[in-house]
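Memo to structure team: turn this sequence into structure tokens by end of day. - J.P.
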Amino acid sequence: MTAPRTTDRTRRHACDTYRGPTILVEFDHWRILIDPTFDPPGRRYPFALGTSSVKTRGPALQPHELGRVDLILVSHDHHADNLDRAGRALLPRATHVLTTASGARRLNAANTQGLTTGQTIALTMDGKPRLNITATPCRHGPPLSRAIVGDVIGFAIRGEGAADVALWVTGDTVLCRAVLRTARNLDVDVAIVNAGGVGFPLTGPLKYTMTGVDAVRLITELAPRVALAAHYDGWSHFRDGEEGMRHAVDGAPASTRALIRWLPDGEPVDI
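Reply from structure team:
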């Protein structure tokens, strides 16, 4: 286990989850929306190689209830559980949209910029401190699967002049060496960790995101001030789901359990 770091972490965030990966974060006067998904439940969405998934839970709130959105982070644009039709309709409302380089080419919008893994961009808006955002690695499936599953990134957000990471969004990823290495090298205040243990009958035992056990291991390595579990339910392709996430947290060391917060749907929470 990695010992908790000694960095002075005095910043606070307001977080509001809309279910799935969709979370609104307020930090340093920025309103940041992560992976907007606001379609109603019931529809089946296609993925790669003939796989598909049904959305089983709708959003906790509707897009018109969001208020101002300064920045939208899209870990990947080509899977509907991270960016659906209603989410796409929201993109023009934001001053800035960040996603993968390939996703930015597909979205082809003036407010959208693409990042490759390891790339950092500085964002500015009038009346707000600068944000420095680095794309962190993801592997959304087994080794050598990127050509099939496509590009995915996470986001490490630093405030102006800060060395530590105010917010790390893991994105959709399995627990691989690159993600563990990132966790060991970052000093993180708040981490949003996507789990769910995605799998499909067509591809057998292969995993496409972290299970609850994987997420707990990552949080233990990372030792942030706060870890928020996300994107672990609401779709039929989550094999591990909420039950697996909660079971893993219940079985985690007490020091790790103390780091993890569960966000209530549609209610703002100070973190």
